[in-house]
TrEMBL record, chain A:
It comes from the Bacteria. Belongs to the binding-protein-dependent transport system permease family. It comes from Blautia celeris. It is found in: Cell membrane. This is Sugar ABC transporter permease.
TrEMBL record, chain B:
Residues 72-263 form the ABC transmembrane type-1 domain. Gene3D superfamilies: MetI-like (1.10.3720.10). It is found in: Cell membrane. This is Carbohydrate ABC transporter permease. It comes from Blautia celeris. PROSITE patterns: ABC_TM1. Its main location: membrane. InterPro entries: MetI-like, MetI-like_sf. Belongs to the binding-protein-dependent transport system permease family. The chain crosses the membrane at residues 12-37, 76-98, 110-129, 141-163, 184-207, 242-263.
Amino acid sequence: MERIRRNKKAVLCFLMPGFLLYTVLLMVPIGGSLVMSFFKWNGIKNVPMVFVGFSNFKAVITDAMFWHSIKNIMWFMVLTLCTQLPIGLLLAVMLSERFRGYRFFKFAYFVPQVLSTTVIGLLWYFILMPTGVLNTMLQGIGLDSLVKSWLVDKNTAMTTIILVNTWCGIGFHMTVSYAAISGIPDDVVEAAKLDGAVGLKKVFHIIIPMIWESIISSIVVIVTAVLKTFDLVYVMTEGGPNGLTDVPSTLLYKEAFRYNDFGKASVIGVYIFILSVIFTVISLRITKRERLEY
Amino acid sequence: MNDHTRKITKKIILYLVSFFFLFIFIYPLYFVIISSIKTNTEIFTSPFKFPSEFHFENYKTAIEIGNIGRQFLNSMFLAIVTLVLTALAASMVSFAISRLRFKGQGAVRVYFVMGMMVPIQSIIVPLAWAINNFDIRDNYLILILLFTASHMPLATFIITGSMNSLPTSLEEAAIIDGCSIYKVFTRIVLPLVKPAIATVGIFVFMYTWNDLLVSMVFIGKAELRTISVGLLNFVGARKSDYGALMAAIFIAILPPLTMYLVLQENVVKGLTSGANK
């Protein structure tokens, strides 16, 4: 038995295709990204890359646009955490009342999750543009003072994009929380009911502590997903007007394919990667510590 | 307030909130569908009303001028081939990790999990370099392999988890009966992890169908564009032909939406599978 499981030829056979593919097309490029961040290159074939040491890193660190994009992504994380999570939880708690038709609502609320970010971006763009549905609606109910160019106005542009992102993700977190709530043992719920834990009390003293692990995993998902945001911002505003709504990944794209500064783009890529690793490690640490015993 | 009225108020509130969110989540979809058969003026003057007459010529414009049909097929091809390749490669790797014994097994497992932290943007620049230097722009094979590689970590994670939960007694009996390790894989283990493979298949299909960034960087020729890139180009080219744009959008969401309508809970499982890592 052991001999068969240790068969070297079999190991190579099963492991190699996936291993090579993954290494050559995902892990090597990550290394390549690090290497390229020390070079200047304009993206043109046969133009040699020039070693420039840390100057790309310096250029990015001193770039106000970069810090603005970091500020945007942090606001993105905070606002997403404060909206997606509570609304998802609210819907999950509601649906777990299992009222007539709850399956239909659960099904419908998940629909945005199925659509592509490109489609969602375009769709909301048409709803939010100056002559779009939202403004028509506001005018229709006499709220003319609220009519705005939602995606251009510097007070609303970033927040509007973030709220559209919230719209996409609520279904996801609702589903995760709903599954966790369904997993709470019945005797716990019954005992709590006898002790007088109903309504909000039940939510805060029973449900939330009992599904804490799933909430933490939702937080991890939000933080890492927000960091990777590209499509939605690119589709809705391309990071504009004038970099107002740029996030690191749209900045990376522009540095590379608009300004042909691949060195600087690489550096931004490296920063995104480092942030992603840091956030994941921190979140996993927290998850381990907070694991609830019952 | 007695118990009965309290129950009724609770019900009313539940339904009010439920329908409010139903409107918020479903209205944009409804808007696409009705607008795709409206004239330009009618779209924004009455964004809630059902169209007064059906204008199916919007779909004709989307297909003939937007070339959405071709892009639909391109994306379908990419998504399906990527799905098959990912499921195959990830099952094989998972089998090695879960069932074979070799030096550095733990390290290999961690190595594959690590990839889940790699944001795809971080490899865009080296990719652009490779595209220029190896002349691989518009090469669908490379594009498919690239998609496959990027889905390997999560796919391997899911399938390995499923294999680990299987008892080994079945395979051991088969091996004693003289079954080779390859047959154990194809005849015994693979059929048992079908649900996990379905989950992987669904998320790979969805993510590939929805990809924007990689295809945008990788594809140059108009006739090879994927549907997401095609949509953006169409919007750029026909800025105010909203009816046709909505028709194009509706075509683009048909496959994922149909999949969701048919497979329901399985799609939910596929798309939330990243949450349990």
